[in-house]
Amino acid sequence: MAAAARSLLAARALPAAAAAAAGGAAPYCTVARQQQRRPPPDMRSYLWSRYREAKRVTKELVPSIMSNMLNPDAIFSNNEMSLSDIEIYGFDYDYTLVFYSKHLHTLIFNAARDLLINEHRYPAEIRKYDYDPNFAIRGLHYDVHRALLMKIDAFHYIQLGTVYRGLSVVPDEEVIAMYDGSHVPLEQMSDFYGKSSQGNTMKQFMDIFSLPEMTLLSCVNEYFLKNNIDYEPVHLYKDVKDSIRDVHIKGIMYRAIEADIEKYICYAEQTRAVLAKLADHGKKMFLITNSPSSFVDKGMKFIVGKDWRDLFDVVIVQADKPNFFNDKRRPFRKVNERGVLLWDKIHKLQKGQIYKQGNLYEFLKLTGWRGSKVLYFGDHIYSDLADLTLKHGWRTGAIIPELRSEIKIMNTEKYIQTMTWLQTLTGLLEHMQVHRDPDSQMILEEWKKERKEMREMNRNFFNAQFGSLFRTDENPTYFLRRLSRFADIYMASLSCLLNYEPDYTFYPRRTPLQHELPGWSDQLCTGTFRIPFLQETVQIK
């Protein structure tokens, strides 16, 4: 894990070192003193010389950063946690124990589109739209009343340039006019579980299964707009939501996967390896999923083996999360080998049996598995993790499949070059904005334009429409904010656990606060990289 540690150090060093190359770029008291000094006689020459020097330093920094790559198979920590304290491991099924191929989202999109046409009387012409796996990303918000799909940061600000009406981007000026700026008030944001309810006008799409839903919404919106058809956005949202739900509820998706399991399920022998490793170390394991019994059984036999139930102490299907974690009224029902629901009263949750419905309070009563000795993994930050960490004190692990691909992008030389120069240029702008003469302001405007272009380039590294799942131009995304709050650890897949011993302790990186940067982070970076003109004043001699 030494390599992972070096990678984390590099990630921390990149922005601060680049800022230092720009001439400090920190809110030091010296900035006020610099404003009082007489400006150099030729500001144009001076500023462009600083620009060229910053470019040179940035180029020198890149090889050092390239030597410390982030590990795509690492586990990242939001909260200190030792696996030695964990006695019981719990798992969701979909996109946690099992991963699906790209064909599944196409199946969901096509099936929901056909339901819109056949059951909701939508125009047959929408059948011309196909699923585009590269259009949307997880974590986006949808304004139900305005039919707008957008990316929002941790502070409720819309990232301009990422607002889409149908399949077309909405101009920034129009967005600002609609929202009286780019901030979305708290009362308009989605509710605790990301839903649009009780007056909330925004819906947040957190589920991986929601990617085809967002794309279908955008395609139907596009059709109506292109053909000048007047429609009610609220009705469209509800009809698409119901169609996507019916693909699950009516068993369309489940039957298709069971009929061609090799097409839809990505066989992953490491799932078995993870479960076997935990079992070998005496850990108890349980499964709580919203998926039906026969579907889970066939999938687990495919990826783990016919004896998969022997690895789990408790198996619960059709749990109806997140209601499972809050509703105390629903009792468990045993499911027999033929899938028939039995009427016996459940006094004990037995190994080798499958149970349906139930609730967490009864689960805790029957098992005694409480508190921080339990670690539960899931892909849905709200439905799987939020209640467990806030109300029940379980430790939580988020499975974020997109993490692996984003880290691989972040490890490319092109990305590192772009981000290092973007950080340096930002620092240069901050440091040199004290010069208010016309020549200086003209140059600073040129730099701002370059910075804007580079931000758009950075977005395109990940997704041409919405960029990274984890960041907007300036801030963490709203998705990352919730991930940081509800997940103790997060990783690309469960297989990442194979890289760690069962007594390993995860320590979160100390992320410097803005007022801490001058105190120690800059010193760390300037000790690691020799930065020219860190203490240089703006006065030319």
Automatic annotation (TrEMBL):
Cofactor: Mg(2+)
The keyword Ligase is assigned to this record: no
Gene Ontology MF terms in the entry: 5'-nucleotidase activity; metal ion binding
SUPFAM superfamilies: HAD-like
Binding-site residues for GMP, renumbered to this chain: 94
Binding residue positions for Mg(2+): 92, 379
Note describing how the cofactor binds: Binds 1 Mg(2+) ion per subunit.
CDD domains: HAD_cN-II
Active site residues according to the UniProt entry: 92 (nucleophile), 94 (proton donor)
Keywords attached to this entry: Hydrolase, Magnesium, Metal-binding, Signal
Signal sequence range: 1-20
UniProt keyword Hydrolase, yes or no: yes
InterPro entries: HAD-like_sf (IPR036412), HAD-SF_hydro_IG_5-nucl (IPR008380), HAD_sf (IPR023214), Pur_nucleotidase (IPR016695)
Similarity remark: Belongs to the 5'(3')-deoxyribonucleotidase family.
PANTHER family given in the database record: 5'-NUCLEOTIDASE DOMAIN-CONTAINING (PTHR12103), 5'-NUCLEOTIDASE DOMAIN-CONTAINING PROTEIN 3 (PTHR12103:SF11)
Name under which the protein is recorded: 5'-nucleotidase domain containing 3
Species: Anas zonorhyncha (Eastern spot-billed duck)
